[in-house]
Amino acid sequence: MKLISDNWVVRNLENAIGTWNEKLAELWQLITQTPETFKGGQIWSVIVNIHSALVGIGYGLLVLFFAIGVFQSAASFRELQRPEFALRHFIRFVAAKIAVGYGMEIMTAIFAICGSVVSAIMGGIGGAVSESAALPAEIIAAVEDVSVIQSIPLWLVSFLGSLFITIMSFVLILTVYGRFFKLYLYTALSPLPLAAFAGEGTSAMGKAFIKSYIGVCLEGAVIVLACLIYSAFVSSSAPATDSSLPAVTMVWEYIGQLIFNMLILTGLVKGSDRIVREMFSL
Q1: pTM for this entry
Q2: Whole-angstrom Cα distance, residue 30 to residue 23?
Q3: Residues 127-145, mean pLDDT to the nearest whole number
Q4: What residue spans of 32-148 are helical by DSSP H?
């Protein structure tokens, strides 16, 4: 059983590292959930109701975009009477109507396809990130041997380090929560941009919406890969401790290396949307 130190510096660092490990475990748990099961599905039920209410508005925009597309692409009234012209726009109108009416099914299908990518990545490495940060015994022993006067610089170092680690922990988890909220926003409002497929001139709006939604879904794969990179990096380059150094220098070097490792993961997770856009040109 691990003994809890009475030293304030040690407790402060252990609490910050514990917060990091807790948020990392929560991140891994959240990334495996679907919008339907997130937070017990209560948010999803609200989104479904909003989506259903906007379907009617989507049908209204469908007619508007269809009319705009017809008159923009017709050079003259005679062209409107050509069968191939009418057939082409009729097919586009029907396809857009199906997209608006079955928008919820389309959104969940896209998420399921992207989710299978995440599942494949997680299945290939056993399903979890095993590496967790922990305060080495050498650091604890060195800090506990320091006198009260000499520990004053340690208080400052540990406070700044703990504050930075705690901030990164919440940035990490807030990014994952933000992804879920983006998924909900896209799903709730999907009838409106999907209606843009009814017109040739407005179809770019619908295409941009689908591409952007795919990008949000694929952020999960980038986050999972970022966790794997962090786990491998920590296991291969864990912060070293030199017992010959003074306690303040030892703690400062350890916190610096630890924060550097954590910054790698935080930066990758925070920039997952940019990485997806650059990688897939979305």
Answers
A1: 0.81
A2: 10
A3: 68
A4: 42-73, 77-80, 83-101, 103-124, 137-144
